[in-house]
Each structure stands twice: as C-alpha cells, then as structure tokens.
What we know:
CATH architecture of chain A: Orthogonal Bundle
Largest interface: A-B, 45 and 50 residues
CATH class of chain B: Mainly Alpha
Number of domains of chain A: 1
Shape of chain B: globular
Strand content of chain A: under 5%
Distance between the termini of chain A: 20 Å
Helix content of chain B: over 70%
Number of helices of chain A: 17
Strand order of the largest sheet of chain B: 1-2
Number of strands of chain A: 2
CATH class of chain A: Mainly Alpha
Helix content of chain A: over 70%
Strand content of chain B: under 5%
Number of helices of chain B: 11
Low-confidence stretches of chain A: none
Oligomer: heterodimer
Largest sheet of chain B: 2 strands, antiparallel
Low-confidence stretches of chain B: none
Number of strands of chain B: 4
Structural class of chain B: mainly alpha
CATH topology of chain B: ABC transporter involved in vitamin B12 uptake, BtuC
Structural class of chain A: mainly alpha
Order of helices and strands of chain B: EEHHHHEEHHHHHHH
Amino acid sequence: MSERGRTIAGGLLFAPLAAVPLVVTSGRWIEFLELTLFTAVLGQGWNVLGGYGGQYSFGHALFFGTAAYIQALLQFKLGWSPWLTMWFAILGAMLVAAGVGYLSFRYGLRGSYFALITLAFAEAFHVLSRSFIGLTEGGRGVQLALNQDPAQAFATFQFNFAGPFLSTYGFYYTILVFLSIAYAAVWWMQRTRFGAQLVAVRENEDAAEALGVDAFRVKLGAILLSAAITALAGIYHVQKFLFIDPGIAYGPAKSVEALFAPIIGGLGTVLGAFFIHGIGETTKEIIGTFWQERPGLDLILFGVILVLVLGFAPRGIAGLLGEAWRRATDRACN
Amino acid sequence: MDILGFQIPTYGWQTVTGSAISGVFLGSIYALVALGLTLIYGVLHIINFAHGSLLMLSMYAVFFLWAGLGIDPYLAMLLVVPGGYLFGYVLQRSVIGQVSHGRDEIILLVTLGVAIVIENAALFFFSADERSVQVPYDLDGLDLGVTFVVYPELVALAGSLLITLGLWLFMTRTDTGKAIRAVAKEREGARLVGINVEHIFAVSFGIGTACVAAAASLLAPTYAVHPQFGYLFVLIAFTVVVLGGMGSFVGALAGGFVIGITEQLGRLYLGESLGLITISVIFILILLFRPTGLFGQTPH
C-alpha cells in the first residue's frame, strides 16, 4: 500500500472508532473494543522497536509495569493527581528503557540475545516489585480507592460513576485517545530522518553504520519512544482497574500480548489486535456454551496462529490482505 | 550489615555450608533441565523456548503413569524417555523445522508459540491444579551434619552426572553422535558428505526432549507439577546454558551448580523472595559481558 493509501486507511479506521457510541450501546461490546484498543496500544509500543527497529523485545512488560506502578504508587502513597502522575509514569518507563537500552545496545546484543536480556530484566523487576514490600506493597499489590462522586470523575481520572454517558464510554475514549497518540507518534516517526535511519538499522546494521548512521543512538531513540507508548497502556490499565500487582505488571503475559498483535497483524497493529480479540472472544463464547469457563483454548489458538503466521505469512494478516487486494485488483484490470 | 534499610544477616559456617550443599543438589536439577537445551542450541542454533513446557508435559506423563498405572516415577523413565524422543523428533521435523526460516529471533518466536500451545493445552485438559507423585521414600535421606539431603535429591545428582557422561560418550563414540557434531560445526559440509541434515536436526531435538523427560522423572518425587511449571525452569535453564556456554555439556553441568549454589546463598542472605534476583542478575551480567559463557566457543 502506498504512503498516502496507508494514511487514508488509518483515518478510515479511526473515524468509525470515534463514532462507536452512536451505534454500540451494549456494555459488553464496549468492553471488547476497549480490550482490543488496549492491546493495540501495547502492540504499537512494541512495534516501534520490534517492527520498525527489528529489535525483538520479549520483556515489554518492563515498560508497561513500571508506568503502571508509578501511576498507582504516586496516587496511593502521595495522593497526587493522576493527571500529574501520568507524566512521571511515562518518564519512569523511559528511564528504565534508557538503562536497558544503553546496556544492551552498548554491548552490542542483537537478535535472540536482545530478546533474552529484555526477558531477564522483566523478571528482575518482577522479583524486585515482589520483594520491596515497603515500596510496592509486594505481592498483595496496590489497590486505589474507587471514587464514587460524579463531580470528581475528571479530577480522579475515574469514569465509573461519571454519569450515564461517561461511565460507559469514558475509558473507551481514553484508550482511543491513547491509541491515536501512539499512531500519530509512529506516523511522525516514519516521516523523520530518525524513522528512515531506524529502518536502515533494521535492514542492515553494519551497512547503515558504514553510511554514517549512529546505530546505537537510533536504537536508543526507538526504545525510548517504544517505552513511552507502552507506558500509555500502563496508565490506562491502572485507571481502569485501580489495581496493580507484580504478576500483572511484570509477568510474561503482557510481554507476550505486546508482541502478538504486531506479529500476527503485520504492520497494521490495530488489525492484529482486532483479529486476536475477535478470535479470543469467539472461542470463549463457544467454550462457554459447551464447557462453561474453561481457560486455555483461546491461547492454544493464538499459539497455533502465531506459529502459522511466522511460517507462512511473515507480513502478518495485513500482508495477506494486501496480497489478496492486489490479486483482486489485477484480475479486475485484466 | 545494613544496606539501604535492608538487613543482611550474618550466619555461622555450618549454615552457609549447608546452604551451599543444598545448592549443589538444586544445581544438579537445573543442569539436568539445561542439558537438553544446550544440545538443541549447539546443533540447531535454536534457543528453544518450548523447553520448559516440554519438561512440564513430561512431568504430567510421569504423574499420570504413576496415578493411573501405579508406575514408580524412576521406572517411568523407561517409557517417558523414548516418548520424549519421539515427541521431540516429530515436533522438530513436522512443526518447528517447517516454519523456522530466517532470523533467529523469528525461530525464538516459533518456539514461544509452541510453548504457549503446550502450556495452555495442559491448562485446558489438566486444569491449573497442582499434582504431585507420592512415593514412600520421598522424605528419607542422609544427614550430612550441616544439612539434610533426601534420597530423590541424591538420585537427581547422580542422574545429572550420568546423563552428562552418557551424552558425552554418545557424541564422541557413536556414528550418530559424530554426524550430530558434524552438522553442528558445518551443516552444508555435512550435507555434502551425505548426512541427512533434517534428520539429524530432528534427532538432536528428540534427544534434547528425551533429556528433559529424564529430568522430569528425576524431579517428580520432589516437585509438584502445574501448567506454568515450565516457566519457572525455562529462565533458569537459559541462564545455565548461557553461563556454561551454549552447546557445552560440561558447561551446562558447571553452570547448573553455579546457579544452584548462588540461588541458595541468595535466598539465605536476601530472603526467599529477593534471593531469586541473583538468577536474573547473573543472566544479565553474563549476556552483557561474556555472552559466550564460561566454556563456550566464540560465536560464528
């Protein structure tokens, strides 16, 4: 797809998402869409480093979890406004990214070695968040107070009691705004010199260096942007569920979720997120009718799809659709 | 000692020695799990993320053989080791080998996908409940003065030494072993002299899985199994393998002991929870400063 085509396609996707409340009134569907957009934000964060930069992180929970903990703890311990804490959450995630990125890229870790070290850092933070009980409340997790006063809904960044419209759609629009920011950032990145250099480093790091690209700085920039976007997902998660613990923050589930969407979906991460949640919800529905509440089957399917996509559709669902579209138009022209 | 408000206790030599000795036994278990992983890496250059889930699956096999047919977990080795070999052979030949082309991080993702499938299949069919084999001898053991060692731990230590020796003999004395080493060193050259490289890949993966099945029956008397059981071990096994040098059996054994002792001393001095950080820290440091490990060759 051409550059312009992609921009138009992006716009075409966001317009209906913004208009969703006109059509969808069922809370369950909104929850589904929220979950999908959340995965898309997480995936877009991963995509900056993994998709554009070619550095496959297996520990993106690092940035999600750090942002979530900062967002929760500054409110919980110091009573700060969530609108203030979110900047610290983003900054904190970027600081962790700077540390991890500096060490990994300075010592030239590539490919699987980079994947392994991000995994190791995520596990280290997992242990730390469980162990320093005085700071993080340990395994019990941090539970924020639920605000029940509609007048305070905006001040507390909690929409649960904010009137009929906001209590249903408040968090939906929050995550939609976050996703738009993530997309705008990636769109901007693609247009800059930095974005071009990042792709050059992905394609051939040594050749890019030979042409004068400072690969270390470019990769560091990518991990910082990636962490900042992933931090948005952490902020949303804390405000929505008012709870964080070491397993949610730094466990392997979020790291895996972050790379699922972009790899299965291809560069169009929103597509991947819709695809996996569509399948996830459908299988849960089907299982619900036959066995009632039996976990596992949806993830079995994801695993199978992941393996199939890696083996036979390296450009993901978006790539498959693009190919089908090209074939259809070719036939129409002939 | 007091660092940043964190109390580091002081202990007598008996406690420290006892902790180090139990670290040796724990390390032998880590080495057992890491042996198969290092073999698969050495030959296929695949970092097999599914290794932990294959351990978990073998543990379930041992458990069901015991629960259903009353087979002793050690005796079950006669069944699960060939079973593991076949499973690994087929998995490599018909799944991983078919879809793994291109960069190594893609192959890592393929094995991650396989791990997710196996783990959740276990969750779906066996539920999240912990299951453990009950044997009459699991609490008997030797009193070493500074620590107490149960017989299953002694058997696991002996098992890890024997399996390392067996693998070494197999790799140096048999034709298949020589073919595996040839493929590991120079796969195109091996193909040219008539070695069926795809077959050797699958054989190596099968042997790696058989190792993990042997580890499972040695672990079964002391550990309870649940679907996430593999994840606990996969990080540790990676650490052991990288520390020992990817592809080195002796390295895996030595790496296992180093990690086991460090973990136990870490638990002693830093507490049950924070003590586990020693593993991640070693992993990070070794990746940064000596990615070829203690016994590894220089990367190609």
